[in-house]
Amino acid sequence: MGKIVAGIGTSHVPSIGVAYDKGQQKSEAWSPLFDAYEPVQKWLSEIKPDVAIITYNDHGCDFFFDKYPTFAIGAADKYPIGDEGFGMRQLPPVPGDTAFSWHLINELVYNEFDITVCQELKMEHGFLVPMNLCFSQEPSWPLKFVPLAVNVIQHPLPTAARCFKLGRAIRNAVEDYNDDFTVAIFGTGGMSHQLSGERFGYLNSEFDEWFLDQIEGDPSALISMTHQELMERAGVEAVELIMWLVMRGAMSDQVERIHRNYYVPMTTGMGLITLENVVP
Amino acid sequence: MSQQLDPDRKIEGSYIFTGPMSQKGYALNKLGASLVSDDARASFKADEDSYMERFELTETQKKLIRDRNWIGCVKGGANIYFLYKITSVFGDSLYKLGAKQAGMSYEEFLRTRKISGAT
């Protein structure tokens, strides 16, 4: 059977991608963020997952409101880089794993998750920033990727509980796959921030630290939280934190935390947590 | 209404992007979604009015863009991620767009942040 070997929650703030492209990892403003990912990169290079499933949301790079999927999964050998409205980032295409993607899609649909299947999908900061932070592309990406896009921008959004259950179903699908196949699963986005409206710039670091505690130790309060409460406490756009629950749902009830970081320089709480399963 | 959103608990200074909002702002968002190539951005910048003609914007929506009335766009159903593609063409990055919505100058806004170098 296949195995989930790492669960990672991380912010995907677009300015991180800009700092990465400009080589500002060691600058005073950015080192508190990038330095925290160095041990994560090392840890992942030792674990060597075959595939990373990255749960993210598209920000108008590929999807539009003419047709907007609640859950969409990529099934392609490679995913090109998209232009999000600010020019094209100079990154190589993202390598995919079609065999595993189709396995995952089959299992999820037959387990009552009605997935939109994407044989073409352009990659953007929601996906690329976590990838840039956690893996090195030199000399080439060390693993393959499966993009899992969630609607977190046009209500009605899937509930936090639904996201958690999707994670559970992903874990079952992985365990039904080939022997020795290993997967890292990512939940991305947040943490507290608000971009739209006069409340722009709203932050709640106390909430973010609590969310990091709960996602590790007891996610039940997060699973039952409504979108209303999440937006009130953490900001309207922070509702995307429900994507971390896909990751948490894919992990065992008991987990061991390996890394944790929190940095809030501008308008978004930038959080990081990495988990391994504890098998009782 | 679903139990996920409570219309009786209005979050001050916030406009939740629901179905009706998405419908109202559809043309604005469609214009934003089109700005994903250098050519499209150059055409929009060169001749705003004829570019807007392509997307069936109402006169009210056109005026919001001509006036750079970003908070008006948000209230009119522009989704922030699509609006951001429009404002960027006119030099309003995410933080400038935000400061304008909050009714502050960019400099005033930066003073409210911890590490304003991390833009």
Quick recap:
The complex is a heterodimer of chains A (280) and B (119). By secondary structure, chain A is an alpha/beta fold.
Low-confidence stretches of chain A: none
Total helical segments of chain B = 9
Number of strands of chain B: 0
- Give the overall shape of chain B: globular
User: Low-confidence parts of chain B lasting 5 or more residues at pLDDT below 50?
Assistant: none
Number of domain modules of chain A: 1
Distance between the termini of chain B: 38 Å
SSE run of chain A? EHHEEEEHEHEHEHHHHEE
Q: Could you characterize what this model shows?
A:
- By secondary structure, chain A is of the alpha/beta class.
- Chain A has a single domain, classed as LigB-like (Protocatechuate 4,5-dioxygenase, Chain B), CATH 3.40.830.
- Chain A is 35% helix and 20% strand.
- Chain A has helices spanning 14-21, 31-47, 98-110, 125-134, 160-175, 205-217, 220-223, 227-234, 243-250, and strands at 3-10, 51-56, 71-74, 78-79, 94-95, 116-118, 144-150, 182-188, 255-263, 270-277.
- Chain A has an 8-stranded mixed sheet, with helices on both faces. Chain A has a two-stranded antiparallel ribbon with strand order 4-5.
- Chain A is globular and about 50 Å long.
- Chain B has 119 residues and is an all-alpha fold.
- Chain B has a domain at 19-90: Dioxygenase LigAB, LigA subunit (Protocatechuate 4,5-dioxygenase, Chain A, Orthogonal Bundle), CATH 1.10.700.10.
- In chain B, helix 2 crosses helix 7 (80-89).
- Chain B is globular, with a radius of gyration of 16 Å.
- Chain B starts with 18 loop residues before the first helix and ends in an 8-residue tail after the last helix.
- The model of chain B has no long low-confidence stretch (mean pLDDT 94).
- Chains A and B meet through helix 1 and helix 8 of A and helix 2, helix 7 and helix 8 of B.
